[in-house]
TrEMBL record:
The gene is LOC100477007. Its main location: secreted. This is Pepsin F. Belongs to the peptidase A1 family. GO terms for biological process: proteolysis. The keyword Hydrolase applies. It comes from the Eukaryota. It comes from Ailuropoda melanoleuca (Giant panda).
Amino acid sequence: GRIPLTRIKSIRENLREKDRLKDYLEKHPYNLAYKFLESGDPDLGIHYEPMRNYLDLAYVGTISIGTPPQEFKVIFDTGSTDLWVPSIYCSSPACANHNVFNPLLSSTFRISGRPIHLQYGSGRMSGFLAYDTVRFGGLVDESQGFGLSLREPGKFMEYAVFDGILGLGYPSLGLRGTIPVFDNLWRQGLISEELFAFYLSKKEEEGSVVMFGGVDHSYYSGELNWVPVSRPFYWQLSMDSISMNGVVIACDSGCEAIIDTGTSLLIGPSDIVFNIQKIINANQSYSGEYIIDCDAVNTLPDIVFTINGINYPVPASAYIREGHQGICYSNFDEGAGGSFLSDSWILGDVFLRLYFTVFDRGNSTIGLAPAV
């Protein structure tokens, strides 16, 4: 079960190039991104996703749903658990330029009639729960529960190159009473090991991959270092510290971190991130993004994330990104207020491009090793 992932232009880049970014960021402040709402009323079928911020999602893979198969580009997202795609019944403008699922064309489709609402940072996805065969990477997952959207979450989806989301978080993070895709692969005996792994290529579009049921050792060097999942909800672990030149600059008495393929940046508590931006001399631009001198790539030291006693350096070439027109941006961003992120970090694709990552559900551990 190996699915190639293609790196796409993110919504943020699309908005920036259309000069719509400032307007968007003012309307959707980033601090909504990760307030997890335990609320929501299960009887009404309303389930609050951990608030995702889809501005920066950048890796998509192809799946198909139904018999005969209908194809969709989805984000394989370890920071959420549900699968959803747009439906032919969706009237949002966002659905007009995406692949939509037509239940009438599938002989294996079953409707549950259960309405679902997934609340995201930038709006709500309203739809209904259905069941059908989902195929990807040679795997055939039968009677998979998934969401069909009737209304897309917010205007931002109009700028998205992907159609939907395939979540790989723990079941406790997903819709109650549904079995997530990964759990079905395991229950149906489709994979030999209860794990999956991501390799995100440092190169341009091609070369990234998500693999299910086994680990291809050619994607990393040295040994995998295994870290226990500290809370089986997100793929969350305990981090020792964050340092630069041997001096701790964040997470000084330890903190929590989430390994998240559905976030592209390094996200932390706002006051701490603000301090890191100062240390690396990144300044806020009019659109609210942090801009940094491109030459700093050659002079700034690594920022080292220490996890379970092992150092994971992130060099300046990774925490600085070059946008169009030769402007460089900091890859650190501040997350939500609220209790959840008070001392938590989200390690997104910036980290995952450097470190091959195995998500082992069977042992509730995360394996990390330098990516080749």
